[in-house]
Amino acid sequence: MDKQNNSIDKKLKLARYNHLRDEMDKLVGPLYEKMNDKQIFPFNKDGPIDFGPLIKKQCVEFFDKISRYQYLNQSPALEEKINEYRKVIDGEERTAYVGIGTNLIKTIKRRYKELGDEIRSVEKELELLK
């Protein structure tokens, strides 16, 4: 019975690990990599940088790709900040542009760290189950 429980536990942990890796590789990682890209986050501390048609097109294309993987997200805060930023990109929101972008970047950094910690923790647990 113990061997069977261990096997089930390992399968559950492996499924959890795979989900965390997918969230990192397909959602949070790409956001993290683009945090300093002015084509994706065209603003600075003084306000929006030129949000012309070319930048908007690249930004929309990037966030369309991100949207495909939002189902992997386990962070309500990240979900909220991505949706707020999409409203800016789509032209629905202009009032707190810089704050919205800055908040998204802070949330991306926090989730990146959380996911990294969770992934390392599950990797250790899986190592113990070998």
Please tell me about this protein's structure.
The chain is mainly α and 130 residues long. The chain has one domain (2-128). The chain has four helices and two strands, in the order αββααα. It has helices at 2-33, 53-67, 76-89, 97-128; strands at 43-44, 47-48. Strands 1-2 form a two-stranded antiparallel ribbon. A hairpin with a 2-residue loop joins strand 1 and strand 2 (47-48). Helix 3 (76-89) packs antiparallel against helix 4.
Number of separate structural domains: 1
Mean pLDDT: 85
Shape: elongated
Which spans have pLDDT < 50 for at least 5 consecutive residues? none
List the secondary-structure elements in sequence, H or E: HEEHHH
- Give the C-alpha Rg: 18 Å
Supply the number of helical segments. 4
Biggest pleated-sheet summary:
2 strands, antiparallel
Oligomer: single chain
Strand order of the largest sheet: 1-2
Strand content: under 5%
How helix-rich are the residues, as a percent range? over 70%
Report how far apart the termini are: 17 Å
Q: Which structural category do the helix and sheet elements fall into? A: mainly alpha
The total strand number stands at 2
